[in-house]
Amino acid sequence: MSAEQVTVDGIEVAPRAPGLLAMLREDVACVFERDPAARNRLELLTIYPGIQALVMHRFAHVLWRRGLRYLPRLISFVSRLFTNIDIHPGARIGRRFFIDHGACVVIGETAEIGNDVTLYHGVTLGGTTWSAGKRHPTLGDGVVVGAGAKILGPITVGDRARVAANSVVIEDVTPGMTVVGIPGRMVLPKSQRRIAGGIDLDHHQMPDPVGKAIACLLERIADLEHDVARLAGAQSTVQGACRDCDDTCSQPAFDGSVHAAAQQGVIRHG
Fold first, then answer.
1. N or C: which end of the chain has fewer CB within 10 A?
2. Are 166 and 184 a contacting pair, CB within 8 Å?
3. pTM: predicted TM-score of the whole model, two decimal places
4. What is the predicted pLDDT for the residue at 192?
């Protein structure tokens, strides 16, 4: 049970949501935990576009929930002019939300964001249909979305999942998993994550399944080249990229030995 859950007579009940000012204080305070460049609150409120856009969204969202439409959209428009961050006033954003750098972030109307979520610049939480209703993503608690990532459609990204930079996510993501690539693929189980607790900001250190596939192909080619040389009666010096795959490689390790052997005439084809 999280610290924000409450039990009454042994029954778990939803806690009372904090007030607007309390949420804004948490939004500002969480920046000091996730950005080592942050120095004081005055700096955050005056020159951090992520904080400025979030503050204006909090007020616009209150008006939106009260049934107003034009004024919240106007606030959102003005916020985008000054911050280059486009957050629809209908988007539901949880506590301690942080947009680092903030440029070109887009959050759609029906997007839902949990607590302790971090987005980097260039992130899009977009829709994939013109139909009314839920059409934008839902992010669970503790999610980290790397720079330039696109999460599209009414999908769910589970708690504490991480989305690699420039990934395109179009399917649900299991809690605690890492997503990388276009389209996004889940590649790292929770048991292999580097940080057991807290918020993992190492969104740049991601496994590369494409690189691993290339490494496996190079290994297979090296084996075939070795067999061809043996059948031709020549001694092959070709070395494979790896022998015992531990499923942790992130890019192919090719030392040029195949090319060098071919130039020396060690490997003969035909």
1. C
2. no
3. 0.66
4. 58
